[in-house]
Design the sequence.
């Protein structure tokens, strides 16, 4: 099983990786020239043979491309209240591995945290990226800006299903879903 990395640009015949990915390949995984990695972008997996490895830069050659087949057929969006501490990160990791395609954070009436800093959203995106690599997904779920409750439903695409623990009259089997 090859190691997977999401990349921001299309994969050309000659591949150059830097930054955290080069560090991961060289120092953490300790991969060697001749070994293979998979680079993923927008649902396309590219198989790359590593040619030279350094802590600052890794070079390789693309030997094949294919569509990623690990994405669910149904695009599912999760509206997620902003939770205290690292709990939101734990939820993002789990739902990414389960196949959610979009996460919409919101501030609920009982939310202790009332805003979402850019640094926190970037951290959540890194968590989603790592979880998507682990789950061998073809895409990283999008993480929206935080919404207030009264604006949340404008940000969600139809059809929308609301799961509420106190619902007693309607269940999934009897609904139109």
Sequence:
């Amino acid at each position: 099983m090859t190691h997977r990395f999401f990349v921001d640009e299309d994969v050309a015949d000659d591949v150059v990786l830097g930054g955290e990915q080069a560090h991961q390949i060289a120092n953490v995984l300790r991969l060697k020239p001749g070994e293979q990695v998979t680079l993923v972008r927008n649902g396309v997996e590219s198989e790359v043979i590593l040619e030279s490895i350094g802590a600052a830069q890794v070079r390789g050659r693309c030997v094949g491309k294919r569509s990623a087949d690990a994405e669910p057929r149904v695009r599912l969006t999760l509206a997620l209240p902003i939770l205290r501490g690292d709990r939101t990160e734990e939820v993002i990791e789990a739902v990414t591995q389960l196949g959610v395609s979009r996460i919409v954070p919101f501030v609920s009436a009982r939310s202790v945290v009332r805003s979402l800093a850019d640094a926190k959203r970037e951290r959540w995106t890194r968590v989603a990226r790592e979880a998507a690599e682990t789950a061998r997904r073809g895409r990283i779920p999008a993480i929206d800006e935080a919404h207030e409750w009264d604006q949340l439903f404008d940000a969600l695409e139809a059809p929308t299903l609301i799961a509420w623990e106190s619902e007693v009259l309607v269940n999934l089997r009897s609904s139109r879903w």
Notes: The CA atoms of residues 7 and 41 lie 6 Å apart. The chain is about 25% helix and 30% strand.
